[in-house]
Design brief:
alpha+beta, Beta-lactamase, three-stranded antiparallel beta sheet, 13 strands, about 25% helix, about 20% strand
Length: about 400
């Protein structure tokens, strides 16, 4: 699994702190909220590290094929936030950053990761600074992306992303090119499907076969990234890995494992109904009491400290970084946002649910667990999410001041 970072990675950043508002994780680039940015670092650094290990082992030429083994679990496309597979390169996204030019002229598009798997065509025009920015990225033919639309002159670069539909083949191309850059000649074509039929039995690998490796950061760093930036597909990935932990390759079995974790803390199973790892499925249900009880009892577990440390800090980090920054409460509340908003054919927006849950260290010295939730709030744009979150944060401030 490869995600951009500041250190060598075939996973996520070696220090996975994520973005702080007003910057959003790149996974939010296409949903209408402003501020999505590319994570720092080179998204191919992890593959480059493994390729360097292959070259250092003495291998200078690969006459056969190159195959990505992504059999850790079965790829799953049943969660609302997209395909989850065992192999990720740059979150299996193509990032296209559009920078405006002069009015009436073409904008410029830079993209990453740049591999032979994709080409990107620029069909974006620059309009007046008073105009609106509207961008799309599509794949009209396999391997060929087109970025189109318009961008207002003088505005900051705008990010759009495309989710790769064949991550194993995408990773294979990137790795072959990494090998070549490391000085290893590869006779196989870097493009084309991943020849998974050539893979040996899963149980046949020996430690002595390994010629290059990457060791991921600890799980706590993954959780820190997921919770700080509200990274939905990362949460879904954790569900698939939970399935692997209990001996299954079926991602849905991870939901059973998650429910078991909750019930072990004494929370009734009838109060928690997960349908995906991120809570993006509108069928999912959790009572406020269940979530508050989980957070309170989780503090006493072996993972409690990692969980609380990973939550965004009001006025300081993650999705709460720019909320009540000048309030005395800033820095004293660790809170996870949760929201679901849908648009209607009549261009209306309904906020199905919006919540803040976590911990507050009050002015009087108490450490309290909070869960604040509202549902079915009408709005005219996706900004209703930010407005309601601000109001809920003010409730947290009241708790800080008065308890």
């Amino acid at each position: 699994m490869v995600r951009p970072g500041t250190g060598p990675n075939t996973g996520w950043p070696s220090t996975a702190t994520g973005e702080n508002l007003p910057h959003l994780d790149e996974s939010y680039a296409n949903i209408g909220l402003p501020g999505a940015v590319e994570p720092p670092g080179d998204p191919l650094t992890g593959l480059d590290q493994i390729a360097a290990g292959v070259r250092s082992s003495g291998i200078t030429q690969v006459n056969g094929n190159v195959v990505v083994d992504d059999r850790l679990f079965a790829p799953y496309n049943g969660f609302p936030d997209g395909l989850i597979t065992p192999i990720w390169v740059n979150e299996n996204l193509i990032d296209a950053e559009v920078t405006p030019g002069s009015v009436g002229q073409a904008a410029s598009v830079s993209w990453r990761p740049m591999t032979a798997a994709y080409t990107v065509a620029d069909q974006v025009m620059t309009v007046s600074a008073k105009g609106s920015t509207s961008l799309q990225i599509i794949e009209p033919t396999p391997g060929h992306l087109v970025v189109s639309g318009q961008i207002a002159a003088g505005t900051a670069p705008t990010l759009v992303v495309h989710q790769v539909d064949d991550p194993a083949s995408f990773a294979r191309t990137a790795f072959i090119q990494a090998l070549q850059q490391a000085g290893v000649t590869v006779t196989a074509s870097p493009t084309g499907p991943n020849p998974e039929a050539l893979l040996p039995p899963v149980t046949s690998y020996q430690a002595s076969d390994m010629v290059g490796k990457y060791v991921s950061p600890p799980l706590s760093q993954f959780i820190n990234l997921i919770l700080k930036v509200s990274y939905n597909r990362g949460a879904d990935l954790m569900t698939c890995l939970a399935a692997v932990k209990v001996g299954s390759t079926n991602c849905q079995q991870g939901l059973t494992a998650e429910l078991a974790t909750v019930t072990k803390l004494g929370i009734p199973s009838k109060s928690v109904f997960p349908f995906d790892g991120a809570g993006s499925d509108d069928q999912g249900r959790t009572t406020p009491a269940a979530l508050a009880t989980f957070l309170r009892r989780a503090k006493t577990t072996s993972y409690g400290r990692s969980l609380s440390d990973a939550l965004p800090v009001l006025g300081r980090s993650g999705t709460m970084a720019n909320v009540l920054t000048k309030s005395p409460t800033a820095g004293h509340a660790q809170l996870k946002t949760g929201n679901r908003a849908v648009g209607s054919p009549t261009n209306q927006v309904m906020l199905l649910g919006n919540s803040l849950a976590g911990y507050v260290d009050t002015k009087s010295g108490r450490h309290v667990t909070v869960m604040i939730a509202v549902g079915n709030v009408p709005g005219t744009s996706s900004s209703v999410v930010l407005s309601v979150t601000d109001q809920q944060a003010k409730m947290v401030a009241a708790i800080y001041n008065n308890l």
